[in-house]
């Protein structure tokens, strides 16, 4: 669990998370955008015997680490302790750059051009590109003409893939320049192969993983 790993890395025993009991007694997440949860807003990971509402005023939730392995406890909201903030892992940059320029920008200002390793990440990408100003948006996807295959800028081979018909799975014309990968900002929002000198919006990832 990424949150549990974060707490252990910071040597913190527990921290606030964004779950609280509302006025009607229902547990609710603080992030209002329901598209973020994709049906998982009912997920709970309570510690044994929790929530128990000791004293009748435990309306907030803290997350444990160590022996409790990331489980949750309801607590009074007036305690002072560490807290966890949500940070979107994908950022759309509405500047038109070549693929190499986009790669340099992401590595200088964030982490890297995004690598779409899973279907879940592709769903995030599809949401982000809806606000793009170009028809296609750069991904961290590159083709090696010498060896004839696609790979992510992290050096990983492609396992999950979502190519548009006629793209990515056949011969790539490398006679003029290297080919790089982008995602459609509209339509089916699938991946396409483009010359690296095209200038497009692009997506940066904010951290590894």
Automatic annotation (TrEMBL):
Alphabetical UniProt keywords: Disulfide bond
Protein origin, superkingdom: Eukaryota
Residue intervals of the C-type lectin domain: 3-86, 86-205
Pfam families: Lectin_C
Gene3D superfamilies membership: Mannose-Binding Protein A, subunit A (3.10.100.10)
SUPFAM superfamilies (UniProt xref): C-type lectin-like
Matches recorded under InterPro entries: C-type_lectin-like, C-type_lectin-like/link_sf, C-type_lectin_CS, CTDL_fold
Coiled-coil blocks: none
SMART domains given in the database record: CLECT
Name of the protein: C-type lectin domain-containing protein
Natural source organism: Ameiurus melas
């Amino acid at each position: 669990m990424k949150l549990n790993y974060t707490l252990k890395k910071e040597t913190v025993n527990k921290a606030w998370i964004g779950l609280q009991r509302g006025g009607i007694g229902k547990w609710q997440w603080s992030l209002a955008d329901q598209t973020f949860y994709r049906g998982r807003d009912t997920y709970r990971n309570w510690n044994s015997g929790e929530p128990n509402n000791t004293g009748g005023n435990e309306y907030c939730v803290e997350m444990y680490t160590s022996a409790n392995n990331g489980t949750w406890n309801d607590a009074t909201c007036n305690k002072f302790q560490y807290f966890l903030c949500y940070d979107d892992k994908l950022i759309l940059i509405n500047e038109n750059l070549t693929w190499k320029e986009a790669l340099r920008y992401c590595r200088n200002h964030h982490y890297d051009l995004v690598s779409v390793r899973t279907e879940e990440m592709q769903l995030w990408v599809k949401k982000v590109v809806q606000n793009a100003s170009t028809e296609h948006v750069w991904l961290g996807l590159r083709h090696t003409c010498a060896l004839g295959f696609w790979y992510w800028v992290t050096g990983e081979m492609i396992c999950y893939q979502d190519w548009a018909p006629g793209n990515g799975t056949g011969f790539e014309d490398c006679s003029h320049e290297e080919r790089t990968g982008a995602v459609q900002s509209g339509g089916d929002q699938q991946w396409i192969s483009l010359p690296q000198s095209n200038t497009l919006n692009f997506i940066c990832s904010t951290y590894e993983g």
